């Protein structure tokens, strides 16, 4: 069997897997194979496709690019900052793409001129690009861009929207073809042409097959490699710009783990990690396999953690097949008896990809979508949000007429994942959405889309900017007042003792963090204290622990400290205990899980401000039910807080909000 035939079978195997996924999800969810959802799949997959096409060029040479995710973030930040500085939007976006290309060119130079292994060179660039993105933004999202900045990521060709003749509400007749999907198709055609018809494409395959032979035949291998890495960086830059446009905000923490999605899409599509084998159509199929898997599992309410298991299994099986193929290709073919064995292996590939689709369907539970209320939070990795889930599920039991689905990304910084979850909920025709937005700007287009589709949205915990028209009610703690309460309680505990007070915060740019930190800082500074920080833990306990240890070591005159959310306050409390400062420095935390309760009881913390996360989940679902019954709600409903100390921790008031 020729190499061309082998590649064709590899692509057919991937295509068979993609078809099986479509069949499986169509059978388990009536809203999966609809125009709206197909356009959403294309939009969500386009980012993976951009970076997948780029990394395919690198892998063909036998290299690897681990810097893609960080370059995506840096490019988006560069574009956002340029536009905010007054640069015209198209030029600002070109600056973002050029930033990505520059990072890629440096990768190529490190690999070819410094002779660094691609793994090390791109790992270093991954850290450099991420560090620059965080440094120039102070880890805060770049927001406040003009509306025209969102056209590339949220616009669509042939979109048709009409007004309802009675209510005046918009009715989406046809969602249109998203601009990123059109870009994806054009780039796939362009790079396919380059790899198959142009000299540089043949050189990429030659280098990956045998670099020394390619060099001896007169190919400038260093130049070709630099071109490959530059192309990868450029497409990562494009992905960053499109993502920033779609979210209408540039996230310096965005793009985490995107490099793995890119590599996986290439390998699933038949690109060999050994180099010299692969095609752009194959990578496109691989990208759609990844995109359809995520979309279909989200549509069926499958846990994010189960999604990781399934996608990881797909990657392992695919790479295992690639290694088997490499092993078989190195064996000398002595007789024709070998052929049936190889053909049998290829049939096994087809069968296995089919099984991927069918196995995935086993995890999908079809719901009566019209009676589903989707509860989408910032992350499911937190006791606080699990307590929200408990409230929502109790409301579900009480009402008896709705099915609650609970979803949240792996981390609060995975904003694009949360956007996808909201879009998928809209596509499956849910009755209503209870949403805790991770970013005040990035979720606005999705909430607007829900409004256009007549789906009520109740916000909890954090608000959105300039989106009052699109959501029906906001249930939350008055975070500014709660932050001021924490400051006043800390001032009371300090009893006139002056010095520095440290602020340990969580996610920069999050609405709740901005209001909570603002209320605390205004009040504590008005009382004459010098504020150190804020230090952002990204809602990660270990990061908060390390940051607090550093703050304690470098500020000997520290008299007070404030941790403004659950994982941050827990990490802060552990640092105080480990470093011997428990009871010596006055400390106040926020939220009320078991760890924080223990810190209050042993006087590591002097108190915790506890909001009723349970009430947010319970009242959020109840509010959707009221809206569907025609009841008008207040635009803002304060769910309140309780300041819990060692003296009142066992009272009914405290136990009603602790979890």
Automatic annotation (TrEMBL):
Gene Ontology MF term list: transmembrane transporter activity
Residue ranges annotated for the Periplasmic binding protein domain, each copy included: 373-630
Keyword hit for Hydrolase: no
Keyword NAD (UniProt): no
InterPro entries with a match to the protein in the record: ABC_transp_permease, Peripla_BP_I, SBP_2_dom
Family classification: Belongs to the binding-protein-dependent transport system permease family. AraH/RbsC subfamily.
Designated name of the protein: Periplasmic binding protein domain-containing protein
């Amino acid at each position: 069997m020729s190499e061309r035939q082998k590649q064709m079978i590899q692509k057919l195997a991937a295509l068979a897997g993609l078809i099986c996924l479509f069949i499986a999800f169509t059978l388990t969810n009536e809203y999966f194979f609809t125009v709206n959802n197909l356009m959403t799949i294309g939009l969500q997959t386009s980012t993976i496709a951009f970076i997948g096409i780029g990394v395919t060029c690198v892998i063909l040479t036998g290299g690897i690019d681990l810097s893609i995710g960080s370059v995506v973030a840096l490019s988006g930040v560069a574009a956002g900052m340029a536009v905010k500085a007054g640069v015209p939007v198209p030029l600002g976006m070109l600056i973002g793409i050029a930033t990505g290309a520059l990072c890629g060119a440096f990768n190529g130079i490190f690999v070819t001129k410094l002779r660094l292994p691609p793994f090390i060179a791109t790992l270093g660039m991954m850290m450099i690009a991420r560090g620059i993105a965080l440094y120039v933004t102070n880890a805060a999202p770049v927001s406040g861009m003009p509306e025209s900045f969102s056209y590339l990521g949220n616009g669509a060709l042939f979109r048709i929207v009409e007004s309802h003749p009675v209510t005046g509400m918009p009715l989406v007749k046809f969602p249109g073809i998203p601009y990123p999907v059109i870009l994806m198709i054009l780039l796939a055609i362009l790079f396919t042409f380059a790899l198959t018809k142009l000299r540089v494409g043949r050189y990429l395959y030659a280098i990956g097959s045998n670099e020394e032979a390619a060099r001896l035949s007169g190919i400038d291998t260093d130049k070709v490699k630099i071109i490959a890495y530059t192309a990868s960086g450029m497409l990562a830059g494009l992905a960053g710009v499109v993502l920033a446009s779609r979210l209408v905000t540039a996230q310096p923490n965005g793009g985490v783990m995107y490099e793995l999605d890119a590599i996986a899409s290439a390998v699933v599509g038949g690109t060999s990690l050994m180099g010299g084998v692969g095609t752009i159509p194959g990578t496109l199929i691989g990208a759609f396999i990844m995109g359809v898997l995520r979309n279909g599992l989200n549509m069926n309410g499958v846990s994010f953690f189960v999604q990781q298991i399934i996608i990881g299994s797909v990657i392992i099986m695919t790479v295992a097949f690639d290694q088997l193929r490499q092993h078989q290709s190195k064996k000398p073919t002595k007789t024709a008896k070998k052929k049936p064995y190889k053909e049998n292996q290829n049939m096994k590939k087809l069968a296995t990809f089919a099984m991927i689709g069918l196995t995935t369907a086993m995890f999908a539970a079809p719901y009566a979508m019209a009676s589903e209320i989707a509860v989408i939070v910032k992350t499911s990795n937190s006791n606080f949000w699990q307590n929200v889930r408990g409230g929502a599920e109790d409301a579900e039991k009480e009402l008896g007429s709705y099915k609650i689905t609970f979803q949240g990304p792996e981390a609060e910084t995975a904003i694009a994942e949360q956007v996808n979850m909201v879009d998928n909920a809209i596509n499956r025709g849910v009755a209503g959405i209870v949403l805790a937005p991770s970013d005040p700007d990035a979720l606005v287009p999705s909430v607007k889309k829900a409004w256009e589709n007549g789906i009520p949205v109740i916000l909890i915990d954090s608000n959105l900017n300039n989106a009052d028209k699109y959501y029906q009610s906001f249930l939350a703690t008055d975070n500014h007042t709660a932050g001021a309460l924490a400051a006043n309680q800390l001032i009371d505990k300090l009893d006139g003792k002056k010095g520095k007070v440290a602020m340990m915060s969580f996610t920069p740019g999050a609405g709740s963090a901005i209001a909570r930190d603002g209320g605390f800082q205004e009040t504590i500074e008005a009382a004459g204290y010098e504020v150190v920080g804020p230090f952002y833990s990204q809602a990660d306990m270990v990061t908060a622990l390390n940051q607090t240890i550093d703050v304690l070591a470098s500020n000997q005159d520290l008299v007070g400290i404030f941790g403004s959310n659950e994982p941050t306050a827990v990490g802060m409390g552990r640092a105080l205990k480990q470093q011997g400062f428990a009871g010596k420095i006055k400390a106040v935390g926020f939220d009320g899980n078991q760890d924080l309760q223990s810190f209050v009881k042993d006087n590591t913390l002097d108190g915790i401000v506890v909001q009723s996360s349970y009430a947010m989940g319970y009242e959020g679902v109840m509010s959707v039910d009221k809206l569907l019954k025609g009841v008008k709600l207040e635009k803002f409903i304060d769910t309140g807080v309780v300041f819990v100390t060692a003296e009142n921790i066992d009272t009914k008031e405290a136990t009603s909000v602790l979890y």
